[in-house]
Fold each of these.
Amino acid sequence: MVTKLDRLGRSTVELLTTLNAWCDERINFVAVEQGIDTSTAAGRMICSMLAAVAEFERSLIAERTSSALAARRARGITGGRPPVVDAEKLARADRLIEAGATLTDAAAAIGVGRSTLARHRASRTPA
């Protein structure tokens, strides 16, 4: 027993596979809030229709999200966190390291972690 049908599966195929496996084991599904009970033919039909609608809704959300991200990229807007190390901080860390500071000390001086500084230094150094 679950409260809603969409809590049972992410796609129609997944949901129906689960329900069919339960049916083979003579286990009935009940969605309390939606009044679905697979022990009846009507309940099984409603369950299948609601599963298809739920999958359609998830697909629409995914399409809208993809479209919005593509539009943002087209306008030059990217997602994610802003970089914490800029060219000026990296140059300062380089000067500290050249003067004998450890990577850990240089990272602390510019306000980032050691691994962050190491990653930024490695990404701009040709291999």
Note: The chain has a mean pLDDT of 85.
Amino acid sequence: MEKLFLDHPWIIILILLWTLPWKGAALWRAARRGHIGWFLTLIILNTLGILDILYIFVFANWGKGKKEEQERQIEKNPQPGVQVRQSKFSSSSKSRQTIV
């Protein structure tokens, strides 16, 4: 096996060109969504992009609908004595709510 990589170094380059973009995209998405467990799993395990691709297309969207539904419920039915306002400045492209 070692001889294969020594005789054909372009195989390593192809593996890196395939793996690094998938890993970067998956780690970025996990960090943005606050999935710490997934972030650590993706950074430790190297599965030639298979786990990264699965996370991006399958697991990253789990729970997304539930969070948006909760935000809509807060906007429609605010609790008595709680005032919801939009912040003017945000570190992300999405607007965030501040509960006062």
Note: Residues 18 and 30 are 19 Å apart (CA to CA).
Amino acid sequence: MRQSGILMHITSLPGPEGCGTLGPEAYAFADALKRSGVSLWQVLPCGPTGYGESPYQSSSVFAGNFLLVSVRKLAEDGLLKLTPEDAYRDENPEKADFDRVRAWKSALLRRAYRQSAGSLRAEIARFADEHPWARDYALFAALHERFGGVQWTKWPDRDLRMRKKEALRRAAVAEAGEIDFHLFVQYLFFSQWDEWKAYCHSLGIRLFGDMPIYVAEDSADTWTRPDVFQLDRDRVPRRVSGVPPDYFSEDGQLWGNPLYRWNRLRFLRRYDWWIDRMRGMQRMYDVIRIDHFIGFAHYWSVPYGAPNARGGKWVTGPGRSLFARLKRALPGLSIVAEDLGEVNDQVRRLIDYTGYPGMRVLCYGFGGGADNPHHPANHVQNAVLYTGTHDNDTLRGYLTGAGEQELKSAREALGFTSVEDGIDAFVTACFRSPCDTCVIPMQDLLGLGTEARMNLPGTVGGNWLWRMKEGAFTGDIQRRVLELNQRYGRMNPQ
């Protein structure tokens, strides 16, 4: 089925809460997608953000980011009393200040807890029973706050680090109030999420989520399930993730995530943790993009504490056995394989086996040889085509900064002369492509420059902050997208 989507993270929506939320702005954007004939809304990972506010370094693969909870919606639902003095004072509506938003929203959520948690006690208990991860996450979050936010492997209480039963029992008693608060917040997140998802479905819009292959070292997941990861007796990683040196980086990229104990997961656990994780993703999303999919075929393993990724080595991943198990356990799972990077025959065979669509990125299409899979001449039907991803510069930024030979190749293939014409030519080429699905980052539909870039890999600070200006997704832009969907057979069936 031919379809189109827009990549727009929820925090990037406009609105009066300092960052986008699951409140009225999310519903309004869904309405705009419907008017544009779009079928997919792609978002970045929606878990609690970690180091540098990265959604790819979350403290839980199951929990939701409380910053996405709409306090206005809580007020509408009678769960929070707001006064004019509670309004967020936004100094720059086009950039999120997550530290300020976190402090402001935390205070209001604690007030909502005091005002409404008692009346929701039965519903929250039912939520915790239906989500086995929830109580462990709530205890982790409470202890993380008790110990000043330091990484759990550095908590002063070794028995808690090692999850000794008596220590956990004492902590559960001592932190009962905080545990209840974090359960309350997760209940609110998923209540608002489910309501918003149902609304999107009523418009014929499916949610397209993004899932990192790895988890953060400082996470509830590594604390509660150390058997899943390559950790030593003190719960410190033995080896960590990254990618090898390449044209872009002579040191490679040292990501630092703990690696999985794949043999144990396969032969002793029958991939139970992965089934639970994917079941959680399936509950939230209709389609799931797995970041760094090549890591299932082979992954770069770096000694913990290494200064860079040069000393790593390739190790064979779980391959077919994982996806055979997932297909049996979760037959309706819809996955997109992010197959960018070191794609060799081993990776190609795994993707062929799964049948999952891979990715093409048009901005990557005009360098290299004639066999470049991102060039329009080499696009295939079973793929998702992007102008660029969250890790790329915007389309305007790319066209402004690309090399002369690369631009010449793009002009010849797509038929444009100026940057302005080039933006429209790239977007049109994505809709025209034989790829079943095309997804356009919102910044590219708006024609924004490098100032709207979402992330610059390898840097910390200044990323993930972009927010769309109120009213920027105009009727003219919506009509242009609708025209492209109609012309190239990608219309939302509703």
Note: The chain has a mean pLDDT of 96.
